[in-house]
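Why do we care about 3D structure at all? Because function follows from shape, and shape follows, mostly, from sequence. That is the central idea of this module. The next example makes it concrete: a single protein chain, its amino acid sequence, and then its structure expressed as tokens.
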Amino acid sequence: MTFGGVVAERPPRVSFTNLRTGETVEMPLFPETLGETVAVNWTKQVILGMSHEQLQYSHTSNHTFDDLEFVFRAQSPADLEAITDGRKFLLSLTLPSADAQGVRDGAPPRILFFWPQLVSMTCVLGNVKITHEQFNKQGASVRFKARLTLEEIRDVRLSSETVREQGTQRSNRGSEE
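And the structure:
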């Protein structure tokens, strides 16, 4: 796109990459809000005769992103094809691959969740809720909202120092951009 002789780059978008297949889908618009939750879990130790319970650190729950809402709209046949494909992509992230051979392969795929300048994290899709809001004369959905819940998934220990240094930029894509 060119404005007054200056080439305007398309702004970066929120994207999801299926880490099993490598397929990446960019979302059409940034959501208006992004809710993050991290819970610290403490076990209460009761000691007879003590005036209070002792708290012992148990673990920190996985980082979650709740009610992440994306709006999909089609104003042309090409848009309709794109949003239909986006819907199918999101739904495909809820099921294991047909060629799954083991326990790890028998789960839905891991996802790289990328929000420019904010999040680059390996997650799994906890749930997806799609609400169709408008249909064309042929009955195709031309406007729908997809509400997602994502949960971080890690294979290595995460430390306070790592989070202090990197925040939620915990994957390669976040450090490249």
